[in-house]
Design brief:
The chain is of the alpha+beta class and about 90 residues long. The protein is built from three helices and four strands, in the order βαββααβ. The strands form two sheets. The protein has a two-stranded antiparallel sheet. A two-stranded antiparallel ribbon has the order 2-3. The protein is globular.
């Protein structure tokens, strides 16, 4: 999750969503990606929630360092006030 602040943060959130969701198929290690942009009424909510699926932690590391992913990060980095992350393995 990301909390974005400042003028232009809302526009950056929408651009980030579009950019991240275009990555599956362009980055082999990224199985799927979905970004939710907060549109709720509570002022204290986080701005974005990103759910990305990789097959394993090795693929996650490749995705995280991939230049196309870093280009997406650059969209929101100037507005980033906070970040929270949970990495986990889905048990079948």
């Amino acid at each position: 999750m990301f909390r974005l602040e400042g003028p232009g943060a809302g526009e950056a959130a929408c651009k980030f969503k579009e950019a991240i969701e275009a990555l599956p198929g362009r980055i082999e290690q990224l199985v799927s990606a979905e970004v939710g942009v907060n549109d709720g009424p509570d002022a204290g909510n986080w701005t974005l929630a990103l759910t990305a699926e990789c097959r394993d932690y090795e693929d996650l590391a490749v995705y995280a360092a991939h230049p196309l992913h870093l280009d997406c990060v650059a969209i929101i980095k100037p507005f980033m006030a906070a970040r929270a992350c949970v990495d986990y393995i889905v048990k079948e």
